[in-house]
Amino acid sequence: MSALLSVRDLSVDFTTYGQTHQVLHGVSLDVPAHAQIALVGESGSGKTVTMKAIMGLLRQPPAHIRSGQIFYDGRDLLTLADNERLALRGTAMSMVFQDPMSSLNPVFTIADQMGTILKYADRRLGRSRSARDRMARVHEVLAQVRMRDPERISASYPIMLSGGMRQRVLIAMALLSEPALLIADEPGTALDVTTQAQILRLLKDLVTQRGLALLMITHNLGVVRETSSYVYVMNKGRVVEQAETATLFANPQSDYTKSLIAAVPRLTGGTRYGTVTP
Question: Alpha-carbon distance 195 to 165, whole Å?
Fold first, then answer.
């Protein structure tokens, strides 16, 4: 299966206060079309820097891409002009961010924010759509993320919604322009366990139904087990292990992966996801 997204030997530096530190060391990973892939590691492992490099969200400076390539559908994103790179973001590939309250503007309604996103996406894709048609699309996608009464939700401000509802809105925003690749950065982490499970199940269902590729960024191997078929494990800016999810849990190779698996909450007889021997 050919890779929709392919990262090759990506190395990134950060320069602060006159000192340069390398934070990514030759990172390589593949996300095939329609596949569900996880990139897992603790805070500081380099997974978020990798995600930002893929999406073109690294601030340069202080960041500097020392070397490497990032291919999307055969095109090296690092060689594209800024406007070409921007045209892909939010259309061909979209993000579901971790914290809804920092991602949503508190002074605009959900309809205003989603309508604006759709308007700019249509412009990038050379499509024309009336304001009424844009609003119909907003309501359609809100319904697809299982929001009851989409008209009421779209007229609401973020503060009027629960945390789980705001996270569903972020997923709806990412799906507006029907991207082929969805990157989810710790979705639901700020929510209670029950609501987080609902969000992850919704995300997996939507990705499967639409045939999207998913790159899940997380520190939680429990989330990996539930959402992904293949895993890349990162530590200190390097990919230290990669394997199919079942293989990784059954027979982890690196000490770091074993420590992550050992940290998954246990019930009698093993973890809550099955017996695992670190």
Answer: 10
| Residue 190: predicted pLDDT | 65
Binned average pLDDT, 10 residues per bin, the chain of 278 residues: 88 91 95 93 91 90 92 92 84 83 89 90 82 92 91 94 90 88 83 80 87 90 86 95 93 91 62 40
Q: Of 278, 267, 259, 191, which is closest to residue 45 (Cα–Cα)? A: 259
Planar angle of CA 118, 124, 126, nearest 5 degrees:
100
What fold does the segment set 30-57+80-271 form as a domain? Rossmann fold (3.40.50)
pLDDT for res 210? 87
The C-alpha atoms of residue 88 and residue 121 are separated, in whole angstroms, by: 9
- 118 forms beta bridges with none
DSSP 144-194: HTT-SSHHHHHTS-GGGS-HHHHHHHHHHHHHTT--SEEEEESTTTTS-HH
The Cα–Cα gap between 82 and 91 comes to: 15
Confidence (pLDDT) at 226? 80
Assigned token pair, 20: 């340069």
Domain boundaries, the chain: 30-57+80-271
Instruction: Tell me which amino acid residue 50 is.
Output: T
- The angle formed by the CA atoms of residues 273, 277 and 278, to the nearest 5 degrees, is 105
Buried b (16+ CB within 10 A) or exposed e, 203-227: bbebbeeeebbbbbbbbbbbbbbbb
